[in-house]
Amino acid sequence: MSARRATHAGSWYTDSGTELSRQLDHWLGAADLLHGPARAIIAPHAGYTYCGACGAFAYRQVSPVVVKRIFILGPSHHVRLRGCALSVAKKYRTPLYDLKIDTQINAELEKTGQFSWMDMKTDEDEHSIEMHLPYIAKVMEDYKDQFTIVPILVGSLNPEQEAQYGSLLSSYLMDPTNLFVISSDFCHWGERFSYTYYDRSCGAIHKSIEKLDKQGMDIIETLSPQSFTEYLRKYNNTICGRHPIGVMLGAVKALQDQGYDKMSFKFLKYAQSSQCEDMDDSSVSYASGSLVFEI
């Protein structure tokens, strides 16, 4: 049986199941349930020392008792991908326990002709999906044999493709037994990221970065894909999961077009890896939020 190894355990997060469980419990315990039960969440995918505490705020909104299937949409960092790709693995290993892949849903998605397959090397090199697996395993641990995952690697999509994939996934988003995990960090600032936008009226650089990110977060909360696309075109903010976010917004728009408009998104936590004071500094921002469907 082909299993994807937890290739970033031992470096990006601990490979000790006991220690990992303790850390996740601690972070989840410090987060409040404010906007749940989540149908979709946006959460970061950096090393846990940087974003573990921030990510907990998204996962705290998940109601494990209702969830039977978890779609994980992560951006591709290492391979050029024009569309979206599915995993050839049958399960994903984590230091806690193995997560089972929903091969039936993979088959359904393949039938649309819109998905390719990522090989195991691409899968194991990529961190954007893996960094969510321990959190998923932790939140779902009381129901570990009762849910499956659908990892989807999202390539460099144009707005039309984001709308197309969103429409394709909208029926799954409508199902309350499905949870969507949207993997994204926010602004990558500094020379090493070739991004140094600075609004001096904000004072310190980190304040300018925060204002820029919060502007994007406010737009995501309006659930308007067009406004988010315009924001990205205007500022080029280096939000690495902008395409997975665009797909989620496309799915929401497809449901709105069908007459379902009882959805609200709220960001619950924002953090930066460090506070930039001068132009030689660098940082990555993190944000956690939750999409809720009203009954």
- Calculate Rg over CA atoms: 18 Å
Helix content: 25-40%
Helix count from the secondary structure assignment: 9
Oligomer category: single chain
Q: Please state the average pLDDT score.
A: 96
Give the helix/strand class: alpha/beta
Task: Give the total of beta strands.
Answer: 12
What does this protein look like?
This protein has helices spanning 17-29, 48-59, 103-111, 120-125, 133-139, 159-174, 205-221, 225-235, 242-257, and strands at 3-4, 40-43, 69-75, 84-87, 91-92, 99-100, 115-118, 148-154, 178-183, 188-189, 263-272, 283-293. With 295 residues, the chain is of the alpha/beta class. The strands form two sheets. Strands 2, 3, 4, 7, 8, 9, 10, 11 and 12 form a nine-stranded mixed beta sheet that branches. Helix 1 packs across helix 2 (48-59) and helix 8 packs antiparallel against helix 9. The chain starts with a strand and ends with a strand.
Task: Indicate the topology.
Elements: E1 3-4, H1 17-29, E2 40-43, H2 48-59, E3 69-75, E4 84-87, E5 91-92, E6 99-100, H3 103-111, E7 115-118, H4 120-125, H5 133-139, E8 148-154, H6 159-174, E9 178-183, E10 188-189, H7 205-221, H8 225-235, H9 242-257, E11 263-272, E12 283-293
Parallel strand pairs: 1-5, 2-9, 3-8, 3-9, 4-7
Antiparallel strand pairs: 2-12, 4-8, 5-6, 10-12, 11-12
